[in-house]
């Protein structure tokens, strides 16, 4: 009887998981490349370079489509590993469950709508004299709006009553920053969560919801 090397079996399982969520891991690979590129830039050039790819008011008024795409290809802060973890925990399960096309639609909806609404609110604040005019060039890049949207839609992946506990934790995480001096990005994250929840129609026909109790029972038995 041929014994399978545990390391080889483990690598095969990882490779299979990655293949089951191609969009997630291609996106993550792009973020790895762009993060490495940022680490090779001087601080001054980095700020100028990223601002040109930011969904701030100035860039949205000039080239909205370009910055809405490019802003999702960079990470503010240059830390890739936390995103690798978050993509594996949230994006990959969502893509495997919904399928790549529906998952991508949730990501695009959350990223685009949350960016436009939050920047619209910032523009109003500038016009009302609440925020300075320099805020029109605020650096606003990253993938967190899409991530918040996926966190929201994953609520429907979990069976009741567990989904309500999951939703309560998610809502608390994104609502807590709104209780004290919220920024436009804090508002954008909460909006993205709501947009993900509004994507319920995309979850229909995607199979039975996951029940943690059944999983625990299977592991014990």
Describe it for me?
- The chain is mainly alpha-helical and 221 residues long.
- The mean pLDDT is 92.
- Helix 2 runs antiparallel to helix 6 (81-98) and helix 7 crosses helix 8.
- The protein has helices at residues 6-19, 22-39, 43-51, 57-62, 64-70, 81-98, 100-127, 144-153, 162-175, 184-198, 212-220.
- The chain is globular and about 65 Å long.
- The chain starts with 5 loop residues before the first helix and ends with a helix.
- It has one domain: Rhomboid-like fold (Up-down Bundle), CATH 1.20.1540.
- Its main location: membrane.
Q: Which strand-content bin applies to the residues?
A: under 5%
- Helical amount: 55-70%
What is the chain-wise order of helices and strands? HHHHHHHHHHH
Q: Please, what is the average pLDDT?
A: 92
Overall CATH class: Mainly Alpha
The outline comes out as globular
Q: What structural class do the secondary elements suggest? A: mainly alpha
Roughly how many Å is the radius of gyration?
Answer: 20 Å
Major β-sheet annotation: none
Number of domains: 1
The unreliable regions are none
The total of beta strands comes to: 0
User: Could you please say which CATH topology applies here?
Assistant: Rhomboid-like fold
Query: What is the distance, rounded to the nearest whole angstrom, between the alpha carbons of the first and last residues?
Result: 27 Å
Number of helices: 11
In the CATH classification, which architecture applies? Up-down Bundle
């Amino acid at each position: 009887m041929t014994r399978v090397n545990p390391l080889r079996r483990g690598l095969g399982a990882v490779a299979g998981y990655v293949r089951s969520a191609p969009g997630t891991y291609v996106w993550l690979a792009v973020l790895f490349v762009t993060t490495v590129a940022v680490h090779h830039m001087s601080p001054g050039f980095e700020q100028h370079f990223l601002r040109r790819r930011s969904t701030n008011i100035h860039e949205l008024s000039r080239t909205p489509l370009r910055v809405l795409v490019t802003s999702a290809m960079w990470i503010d802060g240059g830390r890739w590993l936390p995103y690798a973890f978050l993509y594996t925990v949230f994006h990959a399960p969502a893509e495997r469950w919904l399928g790549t096309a529906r998952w991508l639609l949730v990501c695009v909806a959350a990223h685009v709508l949350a960016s436009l609404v939050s920047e619209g609110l910032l523009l109003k604040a500038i016009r009302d004299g609440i925020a300075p005019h320099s805020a029109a060039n605020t650096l606003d890049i990253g993938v967190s709006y899409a991530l918040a949207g996926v966190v929201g839609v994953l609520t429907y992946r979990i069976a009741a009553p567990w989904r309500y506990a999951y939703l309560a934790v998610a809502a608390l995480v994104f609502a807590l920053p709104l209780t004290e001096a919220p920024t436009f990005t804090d508002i954008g994250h909460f909006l993205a969560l709501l947009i993900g929840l509004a994507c319920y129609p995309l979850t229909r026909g995607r199979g039975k919801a996951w029940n943690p109790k059944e999983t625990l029972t299977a592991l014990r038995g």
